[in-house]
């Protein structure tokens, strides 16, 4: 494996447009923006992390971070807190704003507040958003400086600030550049390099403080992966042991499915478990897992690389590997691991047959050893945490054009290109067609059972709450209000799914049929409310719309075998939207005729 050094200098063009040197105040504020961006990690499903600091010289007058997609942007929060002091101030952003389709609140907030200068650590890595906000700010008369574009790396402090902006969005940058989730291999070892005794006993190698850090790291991940040996030996739960916050999907990799019938991971009342195996493996046990609500995904050949490609298709950004040495070795050898997180405990257990964290890699000489870069050490209780990178975080992003039209050009191509894609996939809100998703941050208003108009923060909020509508139970009624108040769609989903799993008796009896009507009602309200979304839907022409979710009912499912109900509903609405558009044109022409006759 070719190991790269984490380098920022490589991304600085040789011809810099109006190069700028950051002052010490600038670097401190940019570091603070990256630190703020880190604040949202673990609160909800992993997503791009945004932080904003507004300052005059050394004094910060407003700060903010994005809690989750669908909540107020970091820039809006910082402007609100700065108030009148934002005028002629400098705003520091770790990452270029990249709002969901039709939402320019971040850029609008900075311009309307009178911010005169913006310093951005990294331009947006996604093609359809890259340079779009930068262009909009510059066209509004704001002076913008961007890392890798016109910021000179003079001195270690500037390099440190720009690197911090990379690290806080390492999963997002890596996924955008490599079409793979960002993966961390975590393990705990004794000072003599063992993860368990010769008998396999491992409770506990590391300290309570180190385990708490592991729980926090799980909460920052979309998924946690273990192998069959770990399930058989340790019977883990792989939960976050904390109230609220993101709950990662638990993934078990097993070729033969020689797994215990009763395991903690088969309890899916709080979060999902997926077992990944080879096609045709132990069909009887697959039925047992399915009866417990565990999803089984079959591969022609089960490899770490194939699993990572599958996780990418599911929209995962960050994956934590907590497997033993047998699985860790092929994961490293296949390039699936980008970072190593090793907790070193001040214990010695010895044993020739005691397992180690990484199995056989076929290296005969020390010169073949894989070298970690950007190694860091941190004392956690009695343990030492060592982290390092096996692969570099991407930093060489395409340059923003002179007028920064990359994003705008992409939008125009969506609307006007005669070569429309025949199949359009959508899933994450920040994807090109992500605004079609029920997770997009577009509030809707609909009447409840009492004909009172109620506002919902997203289609997903409404959908999850309707699972319990009309159920005469105080818990169900309380959860409807909690779901409505959820800060983001991911939290609404977690609340709705958790209650439905734990108390299926509270789900309305007609839900299997009613869910289609509920979703269509919410989607219709969304596209009737937002003309920009209606235009996006119409721009898809006659393309087949496919939900990227692996949900077998709403999405395409594994290998496209799902029912794709969400895509079908959107295509149905698209045909209606064409009629809405034609009707509007008729109304507009009639209004023009009346105005001419009266005038």
UniProtKB/TrEMBL annotation:
<dbReference type="InterPro" id="IPR050765">
    <property type="entry name" value="Riboflavin_Biosynth_HTPR"/>
</dbReference>
<dbReference type="InterPro" id="IPR002734">
    <property type="entry name" value="RibDG_C"/>
</dbReference>
<dbReference type="Pfam" id="PF01872">
    <property type="entry name" value="RibD_C"/>
</dbReference>
<keyword id="KW-0511">Multifunctional enzyme</keyword>
<dbReference type="InterPro" id="IPR024072">
    <property type="entry name" value="DHFR-like_dom_sf"/>
</dbReference>
<dbReference type="InterPro" id="IPR037238">
    <property type="entry name" value="YbiA-like_sf"/>
</dbReference>
<dbReference type="InterPro" id="IPR012816">
    <property type="entry name" value="NADAR"/>
</dbReference>
<protein>
    <recommendedName>
        <fullName>5-amino-6-(5-phosphoribosylamino)uracil reductase</fullName>
        <ecNumber>1.1.1.193</ecNumber>
    </recommendedName>
</protein>
<comment type="pathway">
    <text>Cofactor biosynthesis; riboflavin biosynthesis; 5-amino-6-(D-ribitylamino)uracil from GTP: step 3/4.</text>
</comment>
<feature type="domain" description="CMP/dCMP-type deaminase">
    <location>
        <begin position="24"/>
        <end position="133"/>
    </location>
</feature>
<dbReference type="InterPro" id="IPR011549">
    <property type="entry name" value="RibD_C"/>
</dbReference>
<dbReference type="InterPro" id="IPR016193">
    <property type="entry name" value="Cytidine_deaminase-like"/>
</dbReference>
<dbReference type="GO" id="GO:0050661">
    <property type="term" value="F:NADP binding"/>
</dbReference>
<dbReference type="Pfam" id="PF08719">
    <property type="entry name" value="NADAR"/>
</dbReference>
<keyword id="KW-0521">NADP</keyword>
<dbReference type="InterPro" id="IPR002125">
    <property type="entry name" value="CMP_dCMP_dom"/>
</dbReference>
<dbReference type="GO" id="GO:0008835">
    <property type="term" value="F:diaminohydroxyphosphoribosylaminopyrimidine deaminase activity"/>
</dbReference>
<dbReference type="GO" id="GO:0009231">
    <property type="term" value="P:riboflavin biosynthetic process"/>
</dbReference>
<keyword id="KW-0560">Oxidoreductase</keyword>
<dbReference type="InterPro" id="IPR004794">
    <property type="entry name" value="Eubact_RibD"/>
</dbReference>
<dbReference type="GO" id="GO:0008703">
    <property type="term" value="F:5-amino-6-(5-phosphoribosylamino)uracil reductase activity"/>
</dbReference>
């Amino acid at each position: 494996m070719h190991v790269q050094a984490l380098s920022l200098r490589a991304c600085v063009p040789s011809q810099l447009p109006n190069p700028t040197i950051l002052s010490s105040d600038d670097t401190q504020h940019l570091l603070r923006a990256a630190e703020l961006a880190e604040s949202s990690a673990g609160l909800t499903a992993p997503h791009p992390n945004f932080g904003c600091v507004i300052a005059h010289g050394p004094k910060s007058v407003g700060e903010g971070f994005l809690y989750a997609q669908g909540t107020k942007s970091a820039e809006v929060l910082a402007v609100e807190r700065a108030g009148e002091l934002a005028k002629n101030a400098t705003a520091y952003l770790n990452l270029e704003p990249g709002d969901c389709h039709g939402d320019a609140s971040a850029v609008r907030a900075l311009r309307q507040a009178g911010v005169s200068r913006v310093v951005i650590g990294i331009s947006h890595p996604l093609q359809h958003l890259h340079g779009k906000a930068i262009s909009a700010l510059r066209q509004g008369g704001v002076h913008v400086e961007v890392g890798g574009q016109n910021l000179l790396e003079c001195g270690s402090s500037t390099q440190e600030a720009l690197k911090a902006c990379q690290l806080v969005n390492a999963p997002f940058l890596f996924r955008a550049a490599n079409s793979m989730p960002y993966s961390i291999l975590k393990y705990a070892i004794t000072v003599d390099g063992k993860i368990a005794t010769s008998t396999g006993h491992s409770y506990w190698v590391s300290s309570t403080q180190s385990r708490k850090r592991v729980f926090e790291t799980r909460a920052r991940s979309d998924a946690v992966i273990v192998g069959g040996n770990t399930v058989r030996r340790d019977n883990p739960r792989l939960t976050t042991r904390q109230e609220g916050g993101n709950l990662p999907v638990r993934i078990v990799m097993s070729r033969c499915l020689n797994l215990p019938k009763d395991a903690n991971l088969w309890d899916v009342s709080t979060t999902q478990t997926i077992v990944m195996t080879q096609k045709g493996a132990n069909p009887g046990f697959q039925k047992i897992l399915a009866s417990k609500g565990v999803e089984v995904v079959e591969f022609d050949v089960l490899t770490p690389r194939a699993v990572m490609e599958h996780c990418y298709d599911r929209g995962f950004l960050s994956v934590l590997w907590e497997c033993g040495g047998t699985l860790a070795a092929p994961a490293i050898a296949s390039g699936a691991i980008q970072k190593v997180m090793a907790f070193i405990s001040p214990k010695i257990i010895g044993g020739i047959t005691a397992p180690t964290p990484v199995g056989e890699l076929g290296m005969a000489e020390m010169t073949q050893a894989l070298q970690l870069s950007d190694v860091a050490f941190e004392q956690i209780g009695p343990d030492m945490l060592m982290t390092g990178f096996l692969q570099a975080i991407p930093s060489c992003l395409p340059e923003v054009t002179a007028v920064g039209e990359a994003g705008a050009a992409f939008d125009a191509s969506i609307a006007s290109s005669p070569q429309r894609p025949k199949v359009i996939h959508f899933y994450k809100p920040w994807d090109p067609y992500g605004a079609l998703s029920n997770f997009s941050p577009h509030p809707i208003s609909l009447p409840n059972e009492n004909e009172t108009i109620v506002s919902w923060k997203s289609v997903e909020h409404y959908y999850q709450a309707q699972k319990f509508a009309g159920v005469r139970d105080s818990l169900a009624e309380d959860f409807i209000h909690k779901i409505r108040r959820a800060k983001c769609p991911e939290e609404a989903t977690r609340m709705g799914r958790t209650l439905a799993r734990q108390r299926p008796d509270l789900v309305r009896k007609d839900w299997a049929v009613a869910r289609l009507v509920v979703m269509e009602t919410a989607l219709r309200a969304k596209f009737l409310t937002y003309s920009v979304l209606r235009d996006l839907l119409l721009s898809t022409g006659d393309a087949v719309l496919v939900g990227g979710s692996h949900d077998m009912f709403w999405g395409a499912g594994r290998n496209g075998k799902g029912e794709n109900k969400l895509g079908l509903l959107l295509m149905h609405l698209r045909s209606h939207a064409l009629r809405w558009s034609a009707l509007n044109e008729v109304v507009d022409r009639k209004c023009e005729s009346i105005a001419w006759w009266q005038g």
